[in-house]
Amino acid sequence: MKKVIFTLAFLTTLMVTAQSTWKSDAAHSKIGFGISHLMISTVEGHFSDFDITATATDTFEDAEFMVDIKTTSIDTDNERRDDHLRSADFFEVEKYPSITFKSTDYEKTGDNTFKLTGDLTIHGVTKKATLDGTVNGIITDQRSQKLKAGLKLTGTIDRLEFGVGEESASIGNEVKLTIHLEMAQQ
Questions:
Q1: How do residues 8-63 score in pLDDT, each as one tens digit?
Q2: Any residues with CB less than 8 A from the CB of 129 and at least 6 apart, and which?
Q3: Which tens digits make up the pLDDT trace of 146-166?
Q4: Distance from C-alpha of 86 to C-alpha of 96, rounded to nearest angstrom
Q5: Residue 14's pLDDT is what?
Q6: What are phi and psi of 183, to 5 degrees?
Q7: Where is the chain membrane-spanning (predicted)?
Q8: Nearest CA to 49 among 22, 29, 79, 34?
């Protein structure tokens, strides 16, 4: 009986320690987006201030993500447009300073691919969103001796569903997201 209890305790410890916390490396990560302009071109931009944490195994299977993006950090390489995007016409950054995403489901779709579904909150509106993910690789960083994972997440959202801006012939409704991440195990 003691042997069984010891074995169960050991296995439980292994299961608990199998998951660890990972944090995004801001210098090697980017949250980018693209949106149609006049139905003939695409305006691209990114958010420069964000924090992404994940709880995951060393292989990044069954990862749980928490994302916090500061809306004031929007950057489309055009200061006038960025100020307009920060205004009440779009993100209303003083009232809604963050965009958040909390994953609720991880579905493995291939050897290094997955679908990540979660609650996305923009402009005070929360909706389900699904991102397609790829684990580009996992290595031990020679300098820090920490595990690092490279990931790419892509998806599309409808800005109008979140109350960002109004219907317009000059601005598309669909926003394409491309997120490049380098995550370091803590």
A1: 444 444 444 489 999 999 999 999 999 999 999 999 999 999 999 999 998 888 89
A2: 101, 117, 118, 119, 120, 155, 157
A3: 999 999 999 999 999 999 999
A4: 10
A5: 44
A6: -110, 140
A7: none
A8: 29
Q: Please, what are the domains in the chain?
A: 20-185 (2.40.128.110)
Label each residue of the chain as H, E or C: CHHHHHHHHHHHHHHHHCCEEEEECHHHCEEEEEEEECCCEEEEEEECCEEEEEEECCCCCCCEEEEEEEHHHEECCCHHHHHHHHCCCCCCCCCCCEEEEEEEEEEECCCCEEEEEEEEEECCEEEEEEEEEEEEEEEECCCCCCEEEEEEEEEEEEHHHHCCCCCCCCEEEEEEEEEEEEEEEC
Q: Are 126 and 162 in contact (CB under 8 A)?
A: no
* Cα–Cα distance for residue pair 183/160, rounded to 1 Å: 31
Torsion over CA: 171, 86, 32, 59 (sign): negative
Work out the angle at residue 125's Cα, subtended by the Cα atoms of residues 124 and 128, and round it to the nearest 5 degrees. Answer: 140
Q: How many CB atoms lie within 10 A of CB 25?
A: 14
